[in-house]
Amino acid sequence: MENNAIKKIIEEDPFLKYVGIKVLSLNGGHCKLSIDFRQNLTRLGGMLNGGAIATLADAAGGCSVLTLNNGSNQVTVKLDVSFLKPINSGPVVAEAKVKKSGKNLSFADIEIFDGDGVLCATASGIWFFIGDLK
Question: N or C, which end of the chain has less CB nearby within 10 Å?
């Protein structure tokens, strides 16, 4: 799938747009996304909400899969997130890399960094191809 089409899918998805996800880079099996650190994405204590971190990780993993699946839509089958330290600054960056891709499933690993470039979370996931994007 062409990178401009993937960028459009990510940046025009209503929920991802609400969260403010931006595409930084795309290439075969890799995707780098970011979100700004905003008050409406924090939880008590002023740290980024875990749901926002998981959303960013999921979007990055799905985006990396889209670079390899020839236009097939995909859904997340499984996403495991490990929170290593609180995120208190941005922009927050997620870097995803497909580690294996088959006929129906793709597997990706994701790293999430705070505004200082410190690794704050890791994730791994599985995405299932469901058909052509429309």
Answer: C
